[in-house]
Amino acid sequence: MITLSGVLKTYSSEVAIGPVDLSIPPGGITALVGPNGAGKSTLLVMIGRLLGMDAGTIEVAGYDIARTHSADLAKILSVLRQENHFVTRLTVRQLVGFGRFPHSKGRIKAEDEAIISRSIDFLDLADLEGRYLDELSGGQRQRAYVAMVLAQDTEYVLLDEPLNNLDMQHSVQMMQHLQRAATELGRTVVIVLHDINFASHYADYICAVKDGGVVSFGAPDELMRDEVLTAIFDTEVRVVEGPRGRIAVYY
Q1: Cβ neighbour number for residue 12 with a 10 Å cutoff
Q2: Is the pLDDT of residue 91 over 90?
Q3: Consecutive H or E run containing 24
Q4: Helix 168-184 × helix 110-122 angle, to 10°
Q5: Confidence band (pLDDT; 50, 70, 90) for 12?
Q6: Torsion over CA of 188, 192, 194 and 199, rounded to 10 degrees?
Q7: What gap in Å lies between CA 154 and CA 178, rounded to an integer?
């Protein structure tokens, strides 16, 4: 479980995130949704200890992230930010291999190689593992980054807008891969999403963030209601029944 208690990040007298109290259950996919600037990514990177808190505590699997040694935390929790993508000329396999560093400390063993191969196969990248990142399409490159995170072999995986810059087809494929990671690999995936319909279809839980605070948390059916989404996004939303579940339509 991920537990936030009184978490606060203050940027100015007028801009702050929190205080936030939130419990994210283990297993499945939890999607953080909300308007631009609501604080979704800030919450995610604070959970991943990439941004410090001004107050409060965050625990992941019972570990206080502020007190846990980085080497130990890296075996529990992995994070992929939007802006941490490598620009160095690396092959897919080399990139995915970086995910093993918390375990191998740079000395790749047979067990690490097996996990790297498993992660590459899981994201359907076997035919591309020798290709350089700058030779890949945006969708292929994004899968390589996610494979790197999965190779870290942590129970908790945090992803900041992994669908960014992906078209509809590749967005669907990415969410299917993440859903499989949650169900087949037993990962707890926490993901920032802009599209409420992707969250509704693929997430087990949705956490709605607005004005720096959590305004709603629950199963998709609990949040996919006209009045709830209209209040979250400050625009008229109608939820209709689609062939595969509820769909939000904006007016």
Answers
A1: 6
A2: yes
A3: strand 16-24
A4: 130
A5: confident
A6: 10
A7: 14
Q: Where are the alpha helices (DSSP H) in the chain?
A: 40-47, 70-73, 92-97, 101-104, 110-122, 138-151, 168-184, 196-202, 220-223, 226-233
Rounded to whole angstroms, the Cα distance separating 97 from 231 reads 44
pLDDT of 251 above 80: no
Question: Is the model's pTM score more than 0.70?
Answer: yes
pLDDT at 102: 87
Q: Which of 199, 141, 208 is nearest to 170 (CA)?
A: 141
Token pair recorded at residue 37? 């600037």
Q: How confident is the model at residue 166 (pLDDT cuts 50, 70, 90)?
A: confident
- Both tokens assigned to 227: 């009045």
**Alpha carbons 176 and 11: distance in angstroms, whole number:** 36
